[in-house]
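Quick one, probably user error.
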């Protein structure tokens, strides 16, 4: 099995119910790991959605690839809050223009945490099927949103994808591409 690890090409903050809270400041800061971060701002409910789109390294994914699994990695700079409360991240993969598909994943985050969190696996297709064309599409991506029941702020340094695939075009090679 081969692997493509890639940054996303674009990032945006937008609203889709129930994620209609604080807009993400400087969403493009989540495109690379460079000690700059995007900030959700303070809120007492939902954030807007941070939409990460288009793999920067999509040309390294063969058009004949059979997709085996997808991982989304989130590098958290910090999560802060006032008072007690739960912090939950919601993650949806996207096909085409903001079309959420498959199984939504959730992950609990402790306040004050930083670190790297990975969702999915080398065999997890997130509850739907994928073609190489869909992964190579400029609108492929992930929507990231958070819910808090107390005042909060989320600071993300980077969101990137790892695509696991088998090249069915005859090569059957084992390649790893890292696009940063």
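Nope, works fine. Designed sequence:
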């Amino acid at each position: 099995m081969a692997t493509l690890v890639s940054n996303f090409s674009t990032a945006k903050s937008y609203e889709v119910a129930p994620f209609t809270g604080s807009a993400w400041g400087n969403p493009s800061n989540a495109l690379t790991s460079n000690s700059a971060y995007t900030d959700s701002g303070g809120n007492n409910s939902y954030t807007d959605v941070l939409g990460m789109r288009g793999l920067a390294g999509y040309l390294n994914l063969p058009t004949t690839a059979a997709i085996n699994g997808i991982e989304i990695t989130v590098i958290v700079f910090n999560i802060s809050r006032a008072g007690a409360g739960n912090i939950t991240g919601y993650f949806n993969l996207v096909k085409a223009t903001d079309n959420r598909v498959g199984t939504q994943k959730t992950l609990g985050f402790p306040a004050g945490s930083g670190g790297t969190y990975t969702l999915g696996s080398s065999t997890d297709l997130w509850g739907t099927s994928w073609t190489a064309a869909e992964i190579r599409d400029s609108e492929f991506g992930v929507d990231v949103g958070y819910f808090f029941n107390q005042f909060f702020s989320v600071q993300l340094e980077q969101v990137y994808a790892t695509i696991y695939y088998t090249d069915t075009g005859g090569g059957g090679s084992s390649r790893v591409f890292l696009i940063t």
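The two ends are 21 Å apart (CA to CA).
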